[in-house]
Design the sequence.
């Protein structure tokens, strides 16, 4: 994990700052205001340098002997402490009382490790729980110990732990737990010791996603659809796990409808983690998308500012990156990619890739024009779409890089012949 800087500390809740201050041996931190506490953690001159005399006098007005202050650790030690997974859940936010938060989404992924729900005693007598993580919409999570469905034996994981250990739904984690407080329904995870069978420290401090080796997509995504346009896309502009694909076309060319068809064809597939983002939808379309097979993770209309759209989508992409980095296959479908600032749109598209000896992140987005850098471009013909001449694919303007990796040499030759015929006609 990255070293905390001032902006990250300012964005952290006070409970997180108290935990860091306690880890680095900072005295009197609970009496400091947030701004002074941040200065003290960063080693800057502030109110942490001393306490008021009034607070250290006894009832007779005499000043008791001062306790020696602990030496403030070096910046490198503070950085090391900041990278540790969250411990001592008692100093983090309390879990919601009784009510379960609404899940962000169900996962279809499973990870390695010991059997779910296994409980035992650690060497120091702590009760240990292990299970699959389900991240909630509010950022916290539950450790499902009795299978994928909720149970009274589940363990609450704070949002701070989810964020620091970069957990995603489907991760198998383990660690010691504490019993519920008076107002709580569930046990809480004190700290995260293992993630998917590996020590939490080694997982969280692994190679950054952008630095992992990549390769061209080589595993085709089959749609198995009777829709003529989807059939044409599947065989003439094939997509693979790790593709960067843009469905392009003018107004009323059927971009959103085609994306909806792709979503329906891939929904429910074992081993695929789907996320849907509506970046520039018509208000009338939102209800239709909500009733589809995958509820939108982000749903914005064209009235939202480009910057607001980019900020809303960024967490979805970060989650997808973590899924891919840990060996899963994530697919993010974005309707209205060109509604974002150009640099943000390119950044989101560039995140898609096939990781060597790892998972994949696929991005399938709609836009008026290709952005550049795609591995697959799907161009729709508005005239064909509006006159019912399906498939609506403009084959001459569409294409896939290295299609032979997805459909074989014979399939690639067939694509070349079809494009030549389309160009002549």
Sequence:
């Amino acid at each position: 994990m990255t070293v905390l800087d001032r902006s990250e500390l300012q964005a952290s809740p006070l409970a997180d700052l108290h935990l860091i201050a306690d880890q680095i041996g900072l005295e009197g931190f609970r009496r400091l205001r947030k701004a002074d506490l941040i200065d003290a953690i960063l080693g800057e001159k502030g109110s942490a340098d001393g306490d008021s005399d009034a607070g250290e006098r006894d009832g007779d007005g005499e000043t008791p002997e001062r306790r020696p202050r602990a030496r403030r650790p070096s910046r490198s030690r503070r950085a090391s402490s900041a990278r540790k997974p969250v411990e001592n859940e008692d100093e983090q936010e309390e879990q919601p009382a009784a009510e379960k938060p609404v899940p962000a989404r169900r996962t279809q992924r499973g990870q390695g490790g010991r059997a779910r729900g296994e409980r035992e005693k650690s060497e120091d007598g702590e009760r240990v729980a292990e299970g699959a993580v389900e991240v909630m919409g509010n950022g916290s999570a539950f450790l499902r110990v009795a299978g994928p469905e909720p149970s009274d034996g589940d363990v609450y994981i704070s949002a701070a732990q989810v964020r620091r250990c970069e957990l995603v739904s489907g991760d198998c984690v383990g660690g010691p737990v504490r019993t519920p407080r008076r107002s709580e329904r569930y046990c809480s995870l004190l700290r995260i010791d293992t993630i998917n069978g590996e020590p939490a420290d080694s997982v969280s401090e692994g190679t950054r996603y952008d630095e992992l080796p990549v390769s061209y997509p080589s595993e085709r995504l089959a749609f198995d659809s009777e829709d003529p346009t989807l059939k044409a896309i599947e065989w003439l502009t094939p997509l693979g796990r790790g593709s960067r694909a843009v469905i392009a076309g003018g107004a009323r060319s059927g971009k959103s409808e085609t994306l909806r068809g792709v979503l329906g064809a891939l929904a429910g597939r074992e081993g695929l983690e789907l996320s849907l983002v509506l970046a520039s939808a018509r208000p009338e379309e939102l209800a239709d998308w909500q009733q589809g097979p995958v509820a939108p993770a982000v749903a914005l209309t064209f009235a939202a500012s480009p910057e607001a759209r980019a900020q809303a989508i960024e967490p979805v992409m970060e989650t997808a990156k973590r899924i891919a980095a840990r060996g899963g296959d994530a697919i993010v479908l974005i309707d209205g990619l060109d509604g974002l600032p150009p640099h943000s749109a390119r950044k989101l598209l560039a995140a898609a890739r096939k990781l060597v000896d790892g998972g994949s992140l696929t991005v399938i987005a709609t836009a008026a024009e290709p952005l550049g850098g795609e591995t697959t471009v799907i161009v729709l013909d508005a005239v064909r779409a509006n006159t019912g001449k399906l498939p609506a694919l403009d084959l001459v303007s569409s294409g896939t890089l290295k299609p032979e990796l997805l459909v074989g040499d014979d399939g690639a030759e067939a694509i070349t012949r079809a494009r030549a015929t389309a160009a002549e006609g």
